Amino acid sequence: MIRSQSNSRRHFLMGAAGASVIASCPFRAMGYQSPNDRPVFATIGLRNQGWAITSKSFKFADFAALADVDSKVLEDNVGKVQKGQARKPDSYKDYRKILDRKDIDAVMIATPDHWHTKIAVEAMLAGKDVYCEKPLTLTIDEGKLIEKIVKQTGRVFQVGTMQRTEFNNQFLMAVALVQHGRIGKVKKVTCGIDAMEASPMIPEAAVPEGLDYDFWLGPAPSVAYRALPELRQGYGGGVPLYSNGHYSFRNWHEYSGGKLTDWGAHHVDIACWAIGANQTGPSKITPVNFKLPVEYKDGHPTLSDRYNAATNFEIHAAMPNDVLMVITSEGDNGILFEGTEGRFFVNRGKITGKPVEELKEKPLPEGAIEAIYGGKVSENHTENFTAAMKSRKQPISDVWTHNRMLEICHLSNIAMRFGRALTWDPEKRQIVGDDQANAMLSRPSRKGFETQV
């Protein structure tokens, strides 16, 4: 049976009055009088983006618990959350203790990518709604599993592709411009997603105090911790600049997919949305130019002591309606749409081009942006999520459209790892005529860390 959204707990609380309601659930926001309208959350994975999505959610939810495998990160964030909501959350190293709690309505997942699917699936089976950071999956088959469990459980699932909601509606405007024919027939869309850095040789090192490294590895293969002493500065700072953990996990195919599934998960998403490819995929992926920092054999890196995700790349994806999608590490970070009647560029800082300038004289139809979004546009991705939790409808960043565009990013990585073009069947969601590459659609989990379905 699918558990309703904490109905028994809520009915009990609604039956109490004023102060009794607040006292019965210590994680309610201070002075909040209507617990039925305010869900209880927990965050799993707290460094960097974990704190970002938690802190911007205080307005919409109360946080009862936090989990992280790094005790220092966990302790720091307990203090920050307590300050932010005037209530101290419980803390755990093992996320499964959060899933066991009946008072938690939803979890926010901001772990490294290789943990996303296991935690998300088990959370849904435990009756939780889910907000999970992008990229949602490490493999294409993981996406299919998540879709199956969402359908099976009826849980609400928001992916953290916040460009669909935030950034002053610039990306929604881009989608509307394309879909209202302001550049004519779309011929080409270029997603600039930046280059990935290479690394020097990274030696084995002592595991940092407070980090449960074996649990951090989780479903990934068991390997020694590696790090150089130089520390990262700025965003994600305070950890080794070069390592096989912490902020650097995106540089390793064991845990992520490099820039293709990092920035690619944002810009390819908007590009697919705009050209109407949300429910389908490419027919062919061609790695035109690319550079891998280590040599690969049979699709696997031959060295384990340095980053292995592609540093530079130009990928061509043959999309429906003869649209060419280019994913490149060159040029400005953002999306360039080109059609038979014009072109324009959009990123988080700007939207420019003649079709944009012409809006002064020829604005989009009234309600065009709202129609793209499916209703009133939120300014906060969590607000859209909590509204979906109430309506029990899927939010703006649903798992199906996310997985469709993420398949392009995963296929791009597979194509570079083998150094050849791939033909893709978007109906069967399989690589055609290449058993070796097709085997990369899934990966085995380490014993003891299999996803419990």
Give an overview of the whole structure:
The chain is of the alpha/beta class. It folds into 2 domains: 7-162, NAD(P)-binding Rossmann-like Domain (Rossmann fold, 3-Layer(aba) Sandwich), CATH 3.40.50.720; 163-374 and 399-453, Dihydrodipicolinate Reductase, domain 2, CATH 3.30.360. It is 32% helix and 17% strand. Helix 7 (140-153) runs antiparallel to helix 15 (399-418), helix 8 (170-179) runs parallel beside helix 11 (264-275) and helix 11 packs across helix 15 (399-418). The protein is globular and about 60 Å long. The relative contact order is 0.15. Mean pLDDT is 93; it is low at 1-25 and 28-34.
Kindly list the characteristics that best describe this protein.
alpha/beta, Rossmann fold, Dihydrodipicolinate Reductase, domain 2, six-stranded parallel beta sheet, globular, disordered N terminus
